[in-house]
Amino acid sequence: MKCASQLAKSANTRKAGINDLVQAILQADLSEVKSVLRAGVDPNAAVPTGVWGRMKGWTALGLAYHWLHRKPWPALSAILRALVSAGADINKPSPTRSPLNLAAHRNDLNAARWFLRHGADPSGPSILLPRMLRGHPKGGFCCTALHVAAAGGHVAMAKLLVRYGANPSTRDFNGKAPWELALEFEHEQLAAFLKQPN
Fold first, then answer.
1. Do 68 and 109 lie in a common domain?
2. How many domains does the chain have?
3. Coil, strand, or helix at residue 71?
């Protein structure tokens, strides 16, 4: 495989594109990720159909976290940092979940803290399901990362999100607050915290 820097330097080859960025991410190759980004690839472009099949609609940031979340944190955070430094939108769903939502779902405190420190909106919509919720009064909005943490019983995650400003009274597409989800899934202590987080 030619590296992106070779592609960018050669006038006779094609310009680096989103497929090159996806390949560099999947190989966890930080220097290649940086090289492709320097070549001008938009880190917010959605992965197209075709070669990548199931990855259609993913952003580079979402794909990096989803694909590499089992890698050692220093390696993963270096790739995330390169993408954010190149302008990746940390709140953009990928394809339907924000990176913060993925971290809340996995109860990955390191990643959630990193996303929050780098501008993730703790109260922003973290799952968008436009086709499933077509015609619903809340449009494509499903829930926030705090709803996900509450439903999963992730106490430390919920406390982290609230500390960073997540609104515990935000209602999901079914009209439920995070504390109601915690109660529904039998996480009574978490429900009590979310009812009165201060």
1. no
2. 2
3. coil
Task: Tell me the residue length of the chain.
Answer: 198
* Global confidence as pTM: 0.83
DSSP, collapsed to helix, strand or coil, labels residue 172 as: coil
Q: What is the mean pLDDT of residues 28-42?
A: 96
Task: Count CB neighbours of 97 within 10 A.
Answer: 24
CATH of the domain at 36: 1.25.40.20
How far apart are the C-alpha atoms of 148 and 130, rounded to whole Å? 18
Exposure class string for 142-176: b at 16+ Cβ within 10 A, else e: bbbbbbbbbbbbbbebbbbbbebebebebbbbeeb
pLDDT digits (tens, 9 = 90+) for 50-73: 555 677 788 899 999 998 988 999
54 is in which domain, residue-wise? 1-89
Q: What angle do CA 98, 171, 95 make, to 5 degrees?
A: 20
Count H helices and E strands in the chain, helices first: 11, 2
Last residue of a domain, one of 60, 89, 118: 89
109 and 194 both lie in a single domain: yes
